[in-house]
Amino acid sequence: MSERAAPFHCPYCGDEDLRPNEQGHGAWECAACSRAFQLKFLGLLAPKTSGNTPGREEI
Asked: How much is the pLDDT for 54?
């Protein structure tokens, strides 16, 4: 089984200097802006139905 994907950029400053954080699974810290954040997988989206999405016009 492969390892989980790691974030490429800090969601706050965009820097690439990220390291795993001690807080646990999915926790990362950014050395550039000194922020810590956690990523969490919420699930898969439902398949899109055919047709137009309500409230959205086709161009």
From this structure: 63
